């Protein structure tokens, strides 16, 4: 069974592009346009399969990526998270939140290698 990724980005075009790249690499990808909605569904286990990893944008209306990760860490402290942002200064907001951070644009090969690395590191800590 493929790994399940939760992709959060308020920009539908960017979300669809990343979703396509990840699906072609064999991942099952659930795209959500709202971090609040993603938190609600994750907390209430409304996704069809367990989430192995989360990829989130930083700058989104209502709740930014760091606010999302802080809320997520309250009930899912160990899930791997990759944050993608066009703002280098945003990385500071994620200190001590145990995330990987990449500046946009993220080339497909960098995205895929980061996802693989994060999933493998989670798997190695569960052995």
List the helices and strands and how they pair.
Blueprint: E1 4-8, H1 12-24, E2 28-32, H2 35-43, E3 53-57, H3 65-75, E4 81-85, E5 100-103, H4 108-125
Parallel strand pairs: 1-2, 1-3, 3-4, 4-5
Helix pairs in contact: 2-3
Low-pLDDT windows of residues: none
Q: Give the beta-strand count.
A: 5
| CATH topology title | Rossmann fold
| Morphology | globular
* CATH superfamily caption: Response regulator
CATH architecture: 3-Layer(aba) Sandwich
* Class computed from helices, strands and strand pairing: alpha/beta
| Biggest β-sheet strands, sense, barrel | 5 strands, parallel
In the sheet with the most strands, the strands line up as: 2-1-3-4-5
> For the record, what CATH class applies?
Alpha Beta
Range of strand content: 15-25%
